[in-house]
Amino acid sequence: MIDLHIHSTFSDGSLTPEQLVRQAWELGLTAIALTDHDCIDGIAPFLDACRRYSVRGIAGVEISADVPRGTLHMLGYCIDPADSELGVVLRRIRAGRDERNRAILEKLNALGAKLDWSEVAAFAHEEVVGRPHFAQALVAKGVVESSEAAFERYLGKGKPAYVERYRLSAVDCIAVIKGAGGVPVLAHPFTLELTGTGLRDYVGELRQKGLEGIEVYYSEHTEEQTREYMALARKFDLAMTGGSDFHGEINPAIKMGRGFGSLHVPDELLPSLVARAVRRCS
């Protein structure tokens, strides 16, 4: 069993890369991919730990793209973390995230949900502060009863403290990932809020622009969605991938490798994925 969608403390997870690898080893996973949001700083310690525990490690990233509706995340696998263009792009995206964080804090305070930056940053163990950390701070302050309530009341898209941030287009995400030797994969397609022919046509357009894979197996996918995405992968000759989107204590209901309990990502998916990389994938 494998898990190709995992986050560490270098973005919005609660475990370090080393702790993730140890947990994967304890669970008997044969391969895992670190796919931190807009950040590749955790890849070096991650791969080092994978070698020590004899778990196959895949260097990855998850980049948020700009779309008219819904959300689009592009996963990149087998990337070269030393690629200079990728580094420049991710730094620009993260600078945009910092600008957004300041704006969110201002909006929350204006709404009466008083927070200091230090209260938010305390929940981000490494570098990248995101909306989940604001949610945790709001819970700790007693403003809301849960992280879910924080998003529903303040932080979700369209809510009063939501702020857009700098993003690449989906096509640019694909180009940057391929430029770094990686394999671009559409993550959890249901977040695009497209179905049927709309989703099929959009995936077909992305395939023409260089998309190489689609996340078929995912913690929140229904059986019907899994079948739909599998059919799209076959129609457009895309690699199938899957993962839990594990964040640790940020979302304790989702377990590494198992999602909500029934997730099973087959080992057989990995060869097809790594074969599409233009560089050797560890």
Q: What tags apply to this protein structure?
A:
10 helices, TIM Barrel, alpha/beta, 282 residues, DNA polymerase, domain 1, eight-stranded mixed β-sheet, 8 strands
Outline type = globular
Largest sheet: 8 strands, mixed
N to C succession of SSEs: EHEHEEHHHHEHEHEHEH
Structural class designation: alpha/beta
The number of helical segments is 10
Q: Care to count the β-strands?
A: 8
Residue share in β-strands: 15-25%
Estimated radius of gyration: 18 Å
Low-confidence stretches: none
What is the assigned CATH homologous superfamily of the largest domain?
A: Metal-dependent hydrolases
Q: The CATH topology of the largest domain is what?
A: TIM Barrel
Intertermini distance: 17 Å
Structure description:
The chain has 282 residues and is of the alpha/beta class. The chain folds into 2 domains: 2-90 and 169-274, Metal-dependent hydrolases (TIM Barrel), CATH 3.20.20; 95-155, DNA polymerase, domain 1. 41% of the residues lie in helices and 15% in strands. Strands 1, 2, 3, 4, 5, 6, 7 and 8 form an 8-stranded mixed beta sheet that branches. A hairpin with a 5-residue loop joins strand 3 (56-66) and strand 4. Helix 1 (17-27) runs parallel beside helix 2 (43-53) and helix 5 (131-140) crosses helix 6 (147-155). The chain is globular. The model has no long low-confidence stretch (mean pLDDT 94).
